[in-house]
Automatic annotation (TrEMBL):
<dbReference type="InterPro" id="IPR005110">
    <property type="entry name" value="MoeA_linker/N"/>
</dbReference>
<dbReference type="GO" id="GO:0005829">
    <property type="term" value="C:cytosol"/>
</dbReference>
<keyword id="KW-0500">Molybdenum</keyword>
<keyword id="KW-0808">Transferase</keyword>
<dbReference type="InterPro" id="IPR038987">
    <property type="entry name" value="MoeA-like"/>
</dbReference>
<comment type="pathway">
    <text>Cofactor biosynthesis; molybdopterin biosynthesis.</text>
</comment>
<comment type="similarity">
    <text>Belongs to the MoeA family.</text>
</comment>
<feature type="domain" description="MoaB/Mog">
    <location>
        <begin position="171"/>
        <end position="314"/>
    </location>
</feature>
<keyword id="KW-0460">Magnesium</keyword>
<dbReference type="Pfam" id="PF00994">
    <property type="entry name" value="MoCF_biosynth"/>
</dbReference>
<dbReference type="InterPro" id="IPR036688">
    <property type="entry name" value="MoeA_C_domain_IV_sf"/>
</dbReference>
<dbReference type="GO" id="GO:0046872">
    <property type="term" value="F:metal ion binding"/>
</dbReference>
<dbReference type="InterPro" id="IPR001453">
    <property type="entry name" value="MoaB/Mog_dom"/>
</dbReference>
<comment type="function">
    <text>Catalyzes the insertion of molybdate into adenylated molybdopterin with the concomitant release of AMP.</text>
</comment>
<dbReference type="InterPro" id="IPR005111">
    <property type="entry name" value="MoeA_C_domain_IV"/>
</dbReference>
<dbReference type="InterPro" id="IPR036425">
    <property type="entry name" value="MoaB/Mog-like_dom_sf"/>
</dbReference>
<keyword id="KW-0501">Molybdenum cofactor biosynthesis</keyword>
Length: 399
């Protein structure tokens, strides 16, 4: 029985999470795009010392004030001990003990005798120690994706290295003797569209893509050898084609031959129902996965978005990618007891409109869409309905 689509997403995510590789400590520069394996706890107060927000004067007592020195960013300020004294201070410099106000340079006057007068602003002009965070405070939980902001925050609170989940290693095996790897299709043969497409989308899901092989010869032996070789170097081996039971569909027998166990075998979703994920014990004791994507190109993309993205998220120690929600701008039919994933383009108001050319063998509609409107089993979508939306893994600026 094909599994419910939402159930299948969470099952593969859990399977990935259970098999996530152990954390590694890496220098900050190598942590970009990984996932925090431990909470980010600040190693100091932030800021670590009272810090001037302005260029001007740190003053003590009532003015005018006699300058007794200067404190620049990067140095330790000596205390201001006498009322009626001040030091020149730069933005970012430590505010001296004893100072009770800061006066901006543009709000001050220095008289001929060198005395400074001026009006401090009513609000404090410096940042108090620990005002952003207190030493030992948790700033971000484990499982947070490491992005540029996280790298900057980690550096600012004292980290040289971060404990992160290693990158998930993926491989691709393309099945199908009918596939051409260059030139125009014809004479019964089609161009391999998935060899170029799948690795690019795996990378957008955060995976490192190693081996890409194809077409693998349409024999059981060739499939078994290619799977074994792929699994030796990857956490997840994606395959395309051969998920059904046609005369040269060898995926299921090959999975049996390598001792794989299905996590999900067919999903109640249209298009793409023959998709699967199976787990295989690795030689090192760690679980590896095979993700079988159907051969029809749009169906393969649906399998990537439905199963492979959650699996990679689980292996990376991340949450199940959340579905967003859109308002339909046009009707979308349901698919009976199956979930219908309908390619749609969204506008700036979050309205989704189905795109044309969306047959499971087509890619034209995919290239116009930003994701799939999710029409749940037993429902259909009417204009104005809010429905869940499964975004394609696109980078900013890509549609
Ligand atoms: N008797 C049945 N036959 C089929 C059924 C069914 O329910 N009963 N379901 C159809 C559906 S739905 C799908 S999806 C496909 C899945 O088939 P496979 O995963 O076994 O894929 P193939 O048979 O190898 O290929 C299907 C189709 O896609 C083309 N293809 C394959 N790989 C690529 C590629 N890399 N680039 C471009 N196009 C590719 C291939 O030439 C075929 O046209 O099964 C249906 N059959
Ligand atoms: O389900 Mo197939 O994947 O419709 O093309």
């Amino acid at each position: 029985m094909p599994l419910d689509w939402e159930k299948a997403r969470s099952l593969v995510h859990e399977a990935g999470r259970a098999a996530a590789p152990p954390p590694a400590r890496v220098p900050l520069a190598g942590a970009d795009g990984r996932t925090l394996a431990e909470p980010l706890v600040t190693l100091t107060d932030l800021p670590a010392f009272p810090t001037s927000s302005i260029d001007g004067w740190a003053v003590r007592g009532p003015g005018p004030w006699r300058p007794v020195g200067r404190v620049l960013a990067g140095s330790v300020a000596s205390p201001l001990t006498g009322d009626g004294t001040c030091v020149e201070i730069a933005t970012g410099a430590m505010v001296p003990d004893g100072a009770d106000a800061l006066v901006r340079v543009e709000n001050s006057v220095v008289d001929d005798g060198g005395l400074v007068s001026g009006e401090p602003k009513p609000g404090p002009e410096w940042r108090r120690t620990g005002e952003e965070a207190a030493r030992g405070e948790e700033l971000l939980p484990a499982g947070t994706p490491v992005d540029p902001a996280v790298l900057g925050l980690a550096a600012s609170c004292g980290y040289d290295e971060l404990a992160v989940r290693p990158a998930v290693r993926a491989a691709l095996l393309v099945f199908g003797d009918e596939l051409l790897t260059s030139g125009p299709p014809g004479g019964g043969r089609v161009r391999d569209a998935l060899g170029p497409l799948v690795p690019a989308w795996l990378r957008r899901c955060g995976a490192e893509v190693g081996t890409v092989v194809g077409p693998v010869e349409d024999t059981l032996d060739a499939h078994v050898s290619a799977l074994r070789a792929g699994l030796a170097a990857a956490d997840v081996v994606c395959t395309t084609g051969g998920t059904m039971h046609g005369p040269v569909d060898h995926l299921h027998p090959a999975l049996a031959a390598i001792g794989a166990e299905y996590v999900v075998n067919t999903v109640a979703v249209r298009p793409g129902f023959p998709m699967l994920v199976a787990r295989v014990p690795g030689a090192d004791g760690r679980t590896r996965f095979v993700a079988g994507l159907p051969g029809n190109p749009q169906s393969a993309v649906i399998a990537l978005a439905s199963l492979v993205a959650p699996l990679l998220a689980g292996l990376a120690g991340r949450e199940l990618p959340a579905l967003s929600s859109v308002e339909l701008a046009a009707p979308i039919p349901g698919r009976g007891t199956y979930t219908h994933l309908a390619l749609a383009a969204t506008d700036h108001r979050g309205h989704a409109r189905p795109v044309p050319h969306v047959g499971s063998a087509m890619l034209r509609g995919l290239a116009l869409a930003s994701g799939f409107a999710v029409i749940r089993p037993g429902t259909s979508g009417e204009p104005g309905d809010r429905v869940p939306f499964l975004p394609l893994p696109l980078l900013p600026g890509e549609r």
